[in-house]
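Question (not urgent): is this output format expected?
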Amino acid sequence: MKQLKLSLTDKNYYLLERIAKADDRRLNDLIYLIFSQGLSSYFCERSIYINKDENEITEAEKKQIKKNDQIIENTDKFWQLEEDEQKKLGYIRVEKFYSNCYSPGKKDFISKLADEIKENALKQINIDNQKIKEEIIKEDTLYKVVAGSDEKSIVNGDSFKDSEVK
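Got this back:
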């Protein structure tokens, strides 16, 4: 998995930390959520087209592209035909690019990307929450908070479970 790096002034970082805390979030989780929302907002009214890489076009789409090329080559005035007439000939439009322009019944790729980023962040939050639940402090249990460097303890970075006094 790739990571993005964001350089901030100390003041900006401190303010974001405080915003995250006020929103009951870890700073990293807040950044993921802001980034995904910001991506959608930024491209809300801005059109963008990105050519697909060869590996992003399926085998079925590649076959259809070849078929479309043959239909166009063998049909006089193909582009003057109505869409339903083109379809009767076997022509099916294949998009060789990603776009965020409105397409009826389809979610644009920017919205999909933003949703994937958000879902990935939420999945990680859930994993972390489960880990916390598994390592939660138990009532009526003693934990070693401070110990020598070779002993399990909270100060040495060990989990509550590992720092339990048996």
